Please model this.
Amino acid sequence: MPSLSIVVPLYNERESLDELHGRIVETVKAMNATYEIVFVDDGSTDGSGEVLGALAARDANVRTIRFLANSGKAAGLQAGFDAATGDVVITMDADLQDDPAEIPALVAALEGGLDMVSGWKKERHDPLSKTLPSKVFNTVVRMVSGLPLHDFNCGLKAYRRDVVKTVRIYGELHRWIPVIAKFHGFRVGEIP
Ligand code: UDP
Ligand code: MG
Model:
């Protein structure tokens, strides 16, 4: 089992952090993996920082990075990529839209020969105002990049270490990581 770094960018997610942490720990312990959880607090003002401080105090596998000002999801992910020490890096959103129970399937997909595997939110519980722009975005990126993914923007992804130490993201580039990875020559795939 490779060692895992779970990178979680977050902005004002106080309500979900305890449950998310508990569900991540439950999953990685069942996998018998050595792990770290890197929370990147993107300038939260809702008390997320205090919740993370308490988590780090009781779980030595928790690391926290804190931005002084809100800098966007890509900046948060990049800080997490820089800090991650694991053989495999998993990213997930902090709002419980991504299920930590999917981690073993993502790791298995990497072990099957991929360098990066992206989650696909196959059944979405979002309003049309989100799913329609997302459909257009995914169709255009699929055509431009030649990469046959359904869901480029899913927060739940897994990477071999090399990938996160190679790609550089900022601004809105978090939506393009699969494409950037492909352009670097990495093997990119998707699982529902
Ligand atoms: N996020 C962040 N900085 C921001 C905005 C969002 O770190 O400026 C985090 C957010 O807390 C969540 C993830 O990025 O963990 C995805 O954000 P959101 O749920 O708003 O995106 P969506 O689900 O709409 O794609
Ligand atoms: Mg969300």
In short: The pocket of uridine-5'-diphosphate (ligand 1) is lined by residues 9-11, 13, 42, 70, 72-73, 76, 93-95, 97, 155 (CB under 6 Å).
